[in-house]
Design brief:
Strand content of chain A: 5-15%
CATH architecture of the largest domain in chain A: 3-Layer(aba) Sandwich
Largest interface: A-B, 49 and 49 residues
Structural class of chain A: alpha/beta
CATH class of the largest domain in chain A: Alpha Beta
Number of strands of chain A: 6
Oligomer: homodimer
Largest sheet of chain A: 4 strands, parallel
Distance between the termini of chain A: 67 Å
Number of helices of chain A: 7
Radius of gyration of chain A: 22 Å
Helix content of chain A: 40-55%
Number of domains of chain A: 2
Shape of chain A: globular
CATH topology of the largest domain in chain A: Dna Topoisomerase Vi A Subunit, Chain: A, domain 2
Order of helices and strands of chain A: HHHEEEHEHEHEH
Mean pLDDT of chain A: 90
Low-confidence stretches of chain A: none
Chain lengths: 198, 198
């Protein structure tokens, strides 16, 4: 299919997706070639639709099609407790638990010297505003337990010092169902440090 | 992401691709959400481009962007020997061999009572025309060795009887590198029947 430029172009686009290799991209592009014209039109318009219809919630930074996201517009949810995460994916992880009834704040990344992400790239100004306006009482820092996630959590904790808001961090320790002898030493150390009375 | 209709729409489109499950389709759609707007535009236009720019070669039925496909327009290739295949994918399998210098004819399917594919759905009229116009001397029937593929090959062989063209069929037998004790009995029987003097 070397001579089919328009096919190569489509293969390139598919290959840009995560965990889609060249071979899979080729298979997908060929499948498009065999699809009904209507399905292809729908596909193409759905692609553009995602970009035009979806934007970030101005309050928490979650994706939404409305003025505010579903969580920020839900009056039942406690606006005094915020879980701060780096990505919207983390929000869905918490939402699956079905136990947290507060709200979220999405940073849109973590501080990273390597990736060149500084404070100004994160959604932090709006966090400060929310704390002031909504009289937030607890901020649960839920960035990943990685170097960048820790740095970001510590940075935010420092920033919020003296603002009269309680700052907590997710617990570290052994994952449930895990094995002590399989745990890496960093995790095991954290689990030991964080031990609790039974 | 239950409330994001435009995302669900895109997930549906991705899920229509072969070997893309719901989970992968979701991952892909989310990746699109995070892509640059330009990349998404390019993706969307590449999708439509494939449908508008690519059509079937009027001679052999292969996909092409030009008036005739690269093989039919290649004067170096022998027009007197045709490999008849069910799908364009088979053409690329043969082309990879780099040994066949004849041309192809793509049926666009095989006869199948189950799928409701009859003679009128296959690219057979144009095969008859080619045989007449190009003075074809050999037709190599290369449909798959399945019930449908065999039926189709036999049907075409019957149809071309007495038209002064030699009809051959790909050899059946053990795949190279295969093991006799792993071969299914149908294949082994064919290999036995088709044994040749050394």
């Amino acid at each position: 299919m070397k001579d089919l430029k328009s096919l190569t172009r489509l293969i390139d686009s598919f290959a840009r997706l995560p965990s889609v290799g060249r071979k899979s991209a080729e298979r997908m592009a060929l499948a498009v070639l065999e699809m009904d014209e209507e399905d292809v039109k729908e596909f193409s318009s759905a692609l553009e639709g995602v970009k035009t219809a979806i934007h970030l919630c101005p309050i928490c930074g979650l994706y939404t099609e409305d003025e505010k996201c579903e969580i920020c517009s839900d009056k039942e949810r406690d606006e005094k407790t915020l879980i701060v995460v780096s990505s919207y994916r983390d929000v869905y992880a918490f939402e699956k638990l079905n136990t947290f009834r507060g709200r979220y704040h999405i940073l849109g990344g973590v501080l990273s010297a390597v990736a060149g992400i500084g404070i100004e790239d994160l959604n932090i100004d709006s966090l400060l505003e929310r704390i002031k306006d909504d009289n937030v009482q607890e901020i649960i820092l839920a960035t990943n337990p990685t170097i960048e996630g820790e740095t970001t959590a510590l940075f935010i904790a420092k920033l919020l010092e003296g603002k009269g808001v309680e700052i907590t961090r997710l617990a570290y320790g052994l994952p449930m169902g895990g094995h002590v002898d399989y745990a890496d030493s960093l995790t095991l150390n954290k689990a030991l440090e964080g031990r609790r009375k039974l």
